[in-house]
């Protein structure tokens, strides 16, 4: 059905695929775009990624991988613009994209694939201008986030809701990470189920794998061999709820004060402040001090994939207490490394984590329930290994090659329906 596109314009306005995930607005979507683009190129579809230039002197183009090009577009001041301020730069970004396209031969791009609502606004315009289909991936949705806000967090603005509604109507195809996300698109945005496809994100299984195991990873990272190590990985912001992990650890210590003995408990937090967390970047450190966890909680900046894989391998469990997750990429990565996950039963996490088999899914956001799960690992030294073996097997279904193959199928369907619509419009 339909033809595989030769070249796709991929739009990532607010965050560059070249940025380190875990810093600023860079996160799972960055990983998604990079890995998907590489796999699409391997299948024979070239990808050009358009992103906003965030520093002066950046080269106009960067080859990310064979067949994958990143194009920097000037739109607004290079630095100091928050994601919330970017809607005012959409006209400038769209102009930059169309200027680049104007220098190419007609039919240079076969399809536009936009990521997140800001990119979707640009994609809507340029796809119509170029006469090609638009495929859009929300990644997160304002209405879903606003329905599950952390205490004190700021709701997404009405302008975003309006923008997302427009994109849902305009796109030839919508890609959802899970069946739950597809249902939310239909329920909250009146998306056409026939134009909404489910394609699971993937994991780089060459990097994220059990390798030489937990003991060796702990030795490389300078961590105690016999400690309980609940790990948090991600952007430090209320949505991701790293504070909930700290409250759960305090509850665990109240139950068993001996865990505070040297070498028995380490709580690594790997990531940087983001979103509304940027307003109070030291908040989590101060909370750790207030809860009496100084020295037990260790803060580390975001790291590259190879090092991140070691953090996963070293952990007793990854703890992911988010209020909203469209998929939960770090949960899949941790499991691929042979590490179980304790996660909130929200969004796509019940797809990624098999409750009681590869980790534990927690209903609600009560620290006591997270402490209950961590207490299981504290009481049973073999639990991490047993769940971890099942986790590694489960994660193998999330390879990026499968994601790319599914995406190409969506591209073909979008191309076919777009051509049919054009034929119908012209009689």
TrEMBL record:
Residues 216-392 form the Glycosyl transferase family domain. It catalyses: 1D-myo-inositol 3-phosphate + UDP-N-acetyl-alpha-D-glucosamine = 1D-myo-inositol 2-acetamido-2-deoxy-alpha-D-glucopyranoside 3-phosphate + UDP + H(+). InterPro entries: Glyco_trans_1 (IPR001296), Glyco_trans_4-like_N (IPR028098), Glycosyltransferase_grp1 (IPR050194), Mycothiol_biosynthesis_MshA (IPR017814). Mg(2+) binds at residues 312-313, 315, 339. The keyword Transcription does not apply. Coiled coil: none annotated. Its EC number is 2.4.1.250. Residues 27-202 form the Glycosyltransferase subfamily 4-like N-terminal domain. GO terms for molecular function: acetylglucosaminyltransferase activity; D-inositol-3-phosphate glycosyltransferase activity; magnesium ion binding. Keywords: Glycosyltransferase, Magnesium, Metal-binding, Transferase. The keyword Transmembrane helix does not apply. 1D-myo-inositol 3-phosphate binds at residues 14, 25-30, 83, 116, 140, 160. It is an enzyme of class 2 (transferase). UDP-N-acetyl-alpha-D-glucosamine binds at residues 20-21, 28, 235, 240, 303, 325, 333. Pfam families: Glyco_trans_4_4 (PF13579), Glycos_transf_1 (PF00534). GO terms for biological process: mycothiol biosynthetic process. Catalyzes the transfer of a N-acetyl-glucosamine moiety to 1D-myo-inositol 3-phosphate to produce 1D-myo-inositol 2-acetamido-2-deoxy-glucopyranoside 3-phosphate in the mycothiol biosynthesis pathway. HAMAP family: MshA. Belongs to the glycosyltransferase group 1 family. MshA subfamily. Homodimer. This is D-inositol-3-phosphate glycosyltransferase.
């Amino acid at each position: 059905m339909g033809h595989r596109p030769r070249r796709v314009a991929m739009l990532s306005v607010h965050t560059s695929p070249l940025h380190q995930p875990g810093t600023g607005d860079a996160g799972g979507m960055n990983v998604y775009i990079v890995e998907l683009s590489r796999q699409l190129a391997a299948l024979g579809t070239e990808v050009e990624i358009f992103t906003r230039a965030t520093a002066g002197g950046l080269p106009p183009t960067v080859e990310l991988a064979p067949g994958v090009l990143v194009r920097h577009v000037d739109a607004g001041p290079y630095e100091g613009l928050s994601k919330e301020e970017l809607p005012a730069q959409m006209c400038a970004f769209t102009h930059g994209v169309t200027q680049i396209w104007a220098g190419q031969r007609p039919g240079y791009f076969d399809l536009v694939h936009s990521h997140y609502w800001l990119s979707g606004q640009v994609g809507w315009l340029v796809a119509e201008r170029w006469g090609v289909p638009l495929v859009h991936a929300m990644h997160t949705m304002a209405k879903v986030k606003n329905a599950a806000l952390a205490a004190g967090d700021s709701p997404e603005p009405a302008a975003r809701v309006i923008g997302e509604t427009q994109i849902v109507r305009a796109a030839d195809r919508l890609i959802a990470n899970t069946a739950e996300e597809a249902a939310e698109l239909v329920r909250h945005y009146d998306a056409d189920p026939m134009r909404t496809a489910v394609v699971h994100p993937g994991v780089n299984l060459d990097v994220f794998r059990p390798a030489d195991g937990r003991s060796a990873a702990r030795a490389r990272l300078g961590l105690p061999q016999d400690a309980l190590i609940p790990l948090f990985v991600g952007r430090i912001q209320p949505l991701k709820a790293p504070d909930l992990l700290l409250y759960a650890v305090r509850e665990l210590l109240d139950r068993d004060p001996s865990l505070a003995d040297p070498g028995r408990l380490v709580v690594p937090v790997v990531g940087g402040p983001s979103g509304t967390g940027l307003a109070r970047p030291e908040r989590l450190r101060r909370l750790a001090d207030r809860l009496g966890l100084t020295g037990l909680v260790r803060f580390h900046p975001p790291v590259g994939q190879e090092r991140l894989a070691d953090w996963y391998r070293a952990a007793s469990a990854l703890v992911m207490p988010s209020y909203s997750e469209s998929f939960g990429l770090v949960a899949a990565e941790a499991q691929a490394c042979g590490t179980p996950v304790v996660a909130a039963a929200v969004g796509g996490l019940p797809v990624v984590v098999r409750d009681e088999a590869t980790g534990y899914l927690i209903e609600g956001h009560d620290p006591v329930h997270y402490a209950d799960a961590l207490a299981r690992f504290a009481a049973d030294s073999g639990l991490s290994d047993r769940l971890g073996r099942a986790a590694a097997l489960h994660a193998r279904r999330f390879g990026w090659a499968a994601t790319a193959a599914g995406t190409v199928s969506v591209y073909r369907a979008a191309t076919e329906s777009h051509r049919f619509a054009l034929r119908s419009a012209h009689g």
